[in-house]
Amino acid sequence: MALKVELKPNEKIILGNSVITNGPNRARFYIKGNAVILREKDILTADSADTPCKRIYFAIQMFYLSEEETHNHTDYFAQVNEVIAAAPTTLIFIEEINKQMLTNNYYKALKEARKLIDYEKELFDNA
């Protein structure tokens, strides 16, 4: 089954090792096969990873975009431990992320990390 991707005008998407920028009109295309795909709204740059949970997301994103079969998770787990120490209530989110990480399902880990970022924002807003 093909993945249907619809892009807004001038929207970017990462497909494999390439950044594709849509033209001035909406576009729809279908992707068959296994490819690394990340929409512009889901891409975090190093500069925009300005909170502890965003840095976790960024690390997972780098694993996802990498062509390497194995990854060094040392820095990731150091960041995770720091977040848990500062906010133990994040553990429920971290556990879900780690489940996906341990099976190399980085795309699903990114989806779970997005929930962690939302929770972090909620914590900051209520502090």
Could you explain how this protein is built, in words?
It contains four helices and five strands; from the N terminus they run E-E-E-E-E-H-H-H-H. Strand 2 (12-15) and strand 3 (18-21) form a beta hairpin. The chain has helices spanning 52-65, 74-86, 91-102, 106-126, and strands spanning 3-7, 12-15, 18-21, 27-31, 37-39. The protein is globular. It has two domains: 3-41, no CATH class; 44-126. With 127 residues, it is α+β, with helices and mostly antiparallel strands.
Key phrases:
2 domains; 47% helix; 4 helices; globular; two-stranded antiparallel sheet; alpha+beta; single chain; 127 residues; three-stranded antiparallel sheet
Concise synopsis of the structure shown:
It contains four helices and five strands; from the N terminus they run βββββαααα.
Fraction in beta strands: 15-25%
Number of domains: 2
**How is the biggest beta sheet arranged?**
3 strands, antiparallel
Alpha-carbon distance between the two ends:
45 Å
Helix content: 40-55%
Computed CA radius of gyration, to the nearest angstrom: 16 Å
Strand order, sheet with most strands: 3-2-5
Extended strand count? 5
Element pattern in H and E: EEEEEHHHH
Regions with little confidence, pLDDT below 50 for 5+ residues: none
Structural class: alpha+beta
Mean pLDDT: 92
Query: How many helix segments?
Result: 4
